[in-house]
Amino acid sequence: MSSKSFKSPISQIVGKIPLRIVMIVPFVLQIAGAVGIVGYLSFQNGQKAVKDLANKLMDETTGRIEQNLHTYLEIPHRVNKIKLDALESKVLNMDNLSAWENFLWRLVQLYPEVNISTVANKDGRIRAGDRLEDGTVLMPVLDDFTDYSLQIYNTNEKGERTTVAKVIPNDITGPERRYWYTRQVWYRDAIKAGKATWGSITVSLVEPSLLITALETIRDRLGNTQGIMLTSLRLNSTGKFLRSLKIGKTGQAFIMDDLGRLVATSTDEIPFRLDENGKKQMFKAKDSSDRVTKATSAYLVNHPEIFNNFQNSEPINFKIDGQPQFLRLLPFRDEKGLNWLVAVVIPESDFMEQINANNRNTILLCIAALVLAIVLGIFTSRWISQPILKLSQAAQAIAEGDLHQNVEIKGLKEVSILEISFNSMAEQLLDSFASLEAKNEALRIAEENYRSIFENALEGIFQATKEGSYMSINPAMARIYGYDLPAEMLAAVTDISAQLYVDSSSLNEFYRQMGEKGNVQKFEYRAYRKDGSIIWVQEDARAVRDTNGNVLYYEGLIQDITERKRREEELKRQLQELRIEIDQQKRQQEVAAITQSDYFQEIQAEASDIELDEFWN
Q1: What contacts 486, CB < 8 A, 6 or more positions away?
Q2: End-to-end CA, the chain
Q3: What is the spatial distance between Cα 502 and Cα 526, in angstroms, rounded to a whole number?
Q4: Starting at the edge strand that comes first in sequence, how are the strands of the sheet with 551-560 ordered?
């Protein structure tokens, strides 16, 4: 059954509906749908506005936090770099640590954010500058004159040691006593990294602050460890910075390390507690006493999949006690091994009051616009449908074969233009049908002529793909290669290069000329026939290309020149034999000329007079 005769039930029903109804109903439905979508999108835009505002606020907040962390956490590594520069410039060295005392004292004065800056050499000696939050600078010393116990000295205004403020005993005995510091966590972290790195976060013993330590291993040119540098930074300033941020009305921010422990928070909560032994310890954020920090951390623990969306700019939606919240996560990492997570949480209620009022106004406006659009849509559809009905009737008449149609329509400018185009089209159709008939007849004659030439040509005519198989061949082509019919050869020869070419060098030469010139002329090569015999053929071919210059296929002519080649070889053989015969006659004439010369006769006469026995004796 043809597609023209088949009509689906739906198309049969639609085909019976008048044009006016078909135009009016979809138009009204379209307007109603459009207004409904606008209303829905307006409502959604209200929700999106909340998200956009929260997102923008979170972008700004996380950006400021990230910038502050980068700037602040660079300080201890910068201090270590200053100490390394002093070593490289040979102002100080690792053998004489006493010379470091005033230098470290001034260094912690210069960077008040630093808690302690230390230098330890391979001989077990330590010097450090320890600045308290009140500005007091102490000087921890571990050396042979302290019996390798850590003595913490008070200092005067010149940075000189005065009285001993505190002593941390060394409980190690024997030769290993002097390497007491190698048992410290910061030493093991530095040796393990072998480069600038961060030590573990610790709680200050004397101040209400967490400390993070920048470590640097000092090595000589041979890679041997010469000592350790460390600089500890107070993290309570980070908490102060978070509390200074205005995050919506009631938003919060906090920072966790890679173990899930609370590092800093915008609330008043201190990020460490006393354990059962009275020792200060950090705690995990999910154990926080703050409701938001605790609920957010618990949500992150229960939804580990969100860590795959760190780069997503959209905030994460979750609820705390049934109240929607916006959550933005910022992974904070550096090349020295730091791996923290910054979380910013803002309640949705901080933004919703004005948005809800806007949504109500939007819904009322959408309803009014819908009513107005339906009324205007019905009127406009009826106005347009009338002239189109006339054009439809005229088009139907043309489809039935009556090309003599001329319509007159008054109405819109575009409809008038359509009327003129329609009348012009009808006239052109009359002319086109007459012209088409003439062209079809000419095309039929040309096709018959081409087919006659193709079928009756004495030369082989072919078209071949660039992959090496024939697309079409004429009878002469099949006969040249020993096949009865073109179809037989097309089925048998599927790889021209392997089945027809005797010499692969000829095939390479064919492709070379095609690549350089796009054609071959009088190209001669040996080819296999169907029965395996070898013939000589001459080929004239060209590459047919598309508009981009890519080869589509090859086409050309083939002639059997085996007989001509045989005659050429026979002629060459005869010429060679004639040349040999001429050379023999020429040599005989030269010998005769020599033997008949007077000189040769004189030598022959003299030779006959010689007695051979006397000559040899």
Answers
A1: 472, 473, 474, 475, 477, 478
A2: 123
A3: 6
A4: 470-473, 460-465, 551-560, 534-545, 519-528
